[in-house]
Each structure stands twice: as C-alpha cells, then as structure tokens.
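User: Hi! I'm working on a homework problem where we have to compare a predicted structure to a textbook description. Could you give me the structure for the chain below?
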Amino acid sequence: MKYSLQKLIPDLSSYFMIAFILLFFGCNKIKEKGNSAYIASIHQWHQERIEKLKKENGWLNLAGLFWLSEGKNSFGSDPSNKIIFPKDKAPAFIGTIILKEGRASIKINKGIDVTSDGKPVSELSLISDSAGNATILALGSLRWVFIIRSGKYGIRLRDIDAPLLKDFKGIETYPVNDDWRFNAEFVPCNPPKIISVSTIIGTIEKDTVFGTLAFEVDGNEYNLDPIEEGNEFFIIFADETNGSATYGAGRFLYTLKPDSAGKVVLDFNKAYNPPCAFTKFAACPLPPVQNYLKLKITAGEKTFGQGRH
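Assistant: Happy to help. Predicted structure tokens:
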C-alpha cells in the first residue's frame, strides 16, 4: 500500500508530539518519598482534613464576622442595622443582640423563623463558642454563634450553601517527602516563658511555652516554640515559601508531646493552611517572630487559590 507524502507528514507529526508529551511528563514527574505505609497515612490525614473543612463547622462556609458593641445590636439584611446579614439570605430586620458586660442575649422580631437546636427562638441567652457548647442559631441556610476573641465579643456567621463550599476542589500539596519528618528534641524552658501571639484582626494573645523544639536540616539547627493544647503541641510557623508557594501569613502544625526520651516527631508533611487562607471572616493567630524559619519548607499544603490576605 502506498502513502502520499502529504498524508505521511501529519501522521509523523502527531506521533512525535505524543512521544514528546509522554517523555516530558514522565521525566518531570515529581515522585513521593517514603515507604508506602507512611505515604498512605499522609494522604489519609490530608483527606480527613479536607472533609473537616467541608463540614458545617468547617472554614469554607463562613459568611461574616461582626464585632458587637455594648448594648443593643440590631441585625438583618437592611443597611440600617448595626450587623448586616447577606441581603439574598436574610429578612431586613431579624432582631437584636444585646451585649452586657461580656454576656450576650438575643431577641427575635415577631414573624421571623429563627431556631436553635430545632426549637423556635423569641428570646435567648447565648453561650459562646469558648464555653464548648455554643448556642447555634439558624435561619434558612444561615447559622451564627456568639464568639469571644482576646476580649472582643462578636457574631460568626455561616452559610451552609456558601459558594466556596460548593466550588471547593481541594488544596494542592507538595509531594509527600519523609525528609521533612524529624525527631526533634524538646528543650524545656525553666521557668516557662510567656509569648505574645498577634492575630490577623489586630489583637494580641498571651500563651505559655514550656520548651523549644530543636531540629536539624542539612547540618543547621532550627528552633520552634510550640503552644500546649491538651495532649498535643500547636505550632504556628513561617518559612521562606510563604507568599509564593505557600500562604503568606504562615502555616499551622500539630505534634504529640515529647516521649520519655524528650523526642517529638515533627512532620511538616502535615503543615496546613490557617482558616484565613480561605476566608476573611476568621481571626487567625500569626507566627511569633521566633518561629520564622530561614528555610524553605517544601512540604505540606500550598496556597489555596490566591489567598485571602
């Protein structure tokens, strides 16, 4: 069978193009490093993290953060209210939130169907989220709670039909690499030290640090101040990937407390974005200056979208 030159050239061009694509992506694919069980455990951890973000109490459905003034705070979608809910989601005038000496209560206008725990609300004292059993109020797809942050009192609003929640496709991560998993040494502070942790809303929180985590990368020692949370350490850190590959205001990491030998497993493959990476309605803590690492931590979560701050 004979082929014309005109037919042969397009066929050869297609062949070489396919071969080039396969060769390019095959050679440039970044492989994960670590045994299969470890790699699988990190993927499972990250998937569980994604599922938590998508829950009703996750960070993808925030729709507002409103700070209360002492006294009466009217709320609804009408611009004349002190607290303005989304116009397409709420009635013009829902009711009033009363703040008095750190305590909050709510009064709902007649004809407005606000519920708490499935029961209609007319007047109710509010339990804050810091008490562990916050009063959750509901109206349509909206949910809100009373919060306390660094001596400030506010209302956090959620929308369980939020666009971000519907459009969420996950978070890009660095390939799993067990080179970023360290047996850090816990060096106790005697006496414990009080550190100042700034927040993205401009407040400052005080935390107690009972020791420092020391670890080495390429022969250089680095240190992080962890904050105790129950049986774990909470670490707020910054590194030289922030603002480019990772979120500009740092990332978070949890570890277990030291073992009997004073060792702590510090696994940056579990470093993750703070809530403020997804929404402007969060009040995230920022890395204390001593937790700024002069190092590129190429592990864990990367920036989500274009970031929020």
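For your comparison, note the following. Helices lie at 5-28, 36-54, 163-167. The CA atoms of residues 31 and 175 lie 7 Å apart. Good luck with the assignment!
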